[in-house]
Amino acid sequence: MTTDAETIRDAVRGAYGERAREVLSGAPGDRAGGVASKLYAEADSLPAGVVSYGCGNPVAIAQLQAGETVLDLGSGAGLDCFLAARQVGPSGRVIGVDMTDDMLTLAETNRARLLAAGVHVANVEFRRGLIEAIPLDDAAVDVIISNCVINLSTDKDAVFSEAFRVLRPGGRFQVSDVVLLREISNEERADLDLWSGCKSGALHLDDYRSRLAAAGFEDVEIAVEANPTDAWASALINARRPGGGAPRRGWQFSGPTIELLAPAGLDTADCCSLDDPSCC
Predict the structure, then answer these.
(1) Which of 169, 138, 197, 244 is nearest to 15 (CA)?
(2) pTM
(3) DSSP codes, 126-146
(4) Which of 70, 138, 204, 224 has its CA 20 to 30 Å from the CA of residue 185?
C-alpha cells in the first residue's frame, strides 16, 4: 500500500469512474447506485442516473438564495448541482467541478435528460478540474457546497486555500464531509480502498477546524452525526469568508429540512434503510 498523492488520486478516480460507467451502462453493480433517494426527498423527481455517494445533504444546510452563484466541489453525477439550481433559480448559477471524466459524462447525460424533460437546469455547468486548483477566477462564487469529497484530497490545505480564493467576501463554505474522532493507524492511512471509501483521508475534527481557520475562514462550526461508533463520522461543516455587507444568518444544523447523515462514499449504498439505525 502507498500514500503517494498521485497513486491515491488514480485509485479514487478509478473507483468512482467505475461506478459512473456502470450507471451509464444501465446495469449498475451492487454499490453503483448510491443512496440519492434515501438521503434526498427531492431526488424522487430526478432521473435514476442522478446518484449520490455522499454522506449527507449539503444543499439542505446551505440556505441558498435566489440569484446566488454556487460551486460544488466534486460534483459527481450532478445531484447537488441540480437541487441547488432549483433554489437559486434562473437568476442564479451552479458550477460543478470534478476530476473524473466518466462522472462528468454521467453528469452531462443527466443534465441533458432533465433539459429534455423541461426541467430548468440551463443554469448548471460542469467543469473538469481538481479541487486543489479550482478552475474559477477569484471571488467568483457566493457559496461552496461539497458532499463527502474533500476527505478524498491528499492536500486539504490547498483545497481550503482555493475555496477561500474563489469565494466572494462574506461567502459561505457549507459542506458534508467525513471527519476523524480519533487517530487511525498507518496501515489504515495507506489503504487505497479506505481512501476511495472516504475514510483514510479524513481529517481529525479539531484539525479540520484549525485548517479552515488557517486558510482565513471564520465562524467555523462542525456538527457530527449522533452517536458515532467508529473512528470516522459524517459531519456538516460551515464556515465563512470574512467581509461582505449582507446580514449574517446563523448556521442551520437541525430542523425538518436537514437530512440524516449516512455512511460515507462508496459505503452509502450499503445503507439499506434510513429507518434502520444498524444500517446507517
Answers:
(1) 197
(2) 0.86
(3) EEE-BTTB-SS-TT-EEEEEE
(4) 224
